[in-house]
Amino acid sequence: MNREIINLKNLSKSYNIAGKPFYALKEVNLSFVEGEFTGIVGPSGSGKTTLLNIIGSLDSPSGGEAIVLEKNISSLNHSESARLRNYNIGFIFQVFNLLPVYTVYENVEFALLLQNFSQDERKKLVLQALEWVGLENHKDKKPDKLSGGESQRVAIARAIVKKPKILLADEPTANLDAENAHSILKTMKKINKELGTTFIFSTHDEKVMKYLNRTIILKDGNIEKETKK
Amino acid sequence: MLEFKLSIKNLLGAKLRTFLNLFVLSISFVVIILLNSLMDGWDAQAKKDSVEWEYGNGHLLNENYDPLDSFSILDGHGQIPNNINNLTPILVHQATIYPDGRMMSIKINGIPKDQKAIKIPTTKISANPSKFPALIGKRMAESANISIGDEVLIRWRDKNGTFDANRITVIDIFDSNVPTIDAGQIWMSLDNLWEMTGFNNEATFFIANDLYQHSKISGWKFKSKETLLKVITDLVDAKKSQQAIVYILLLGIALLAIFDTQVLSIFRRQKEIGTLIALGMTRKRVVKLFTIEGSLYSFFALLFGSIYGLPLFYFLAVEGFPVPPADQKVGIAMSDFIYPLYGLKLIFGTVLLVIISSTIVSFLPARKISKMNPVLALKGKLQ
Ligand SMILES: Nc1ncnc2c1ncn2[C@@H]1O[C@H](COP(=O)(O)OP(=O)(O)O)[C@@H](O)[C@H]1O
Ligand SMILES: [Mg+2]
Question: Nearest CA of chain A to the CA of B19: how many Å?
Answer without folding.
Answer: 16
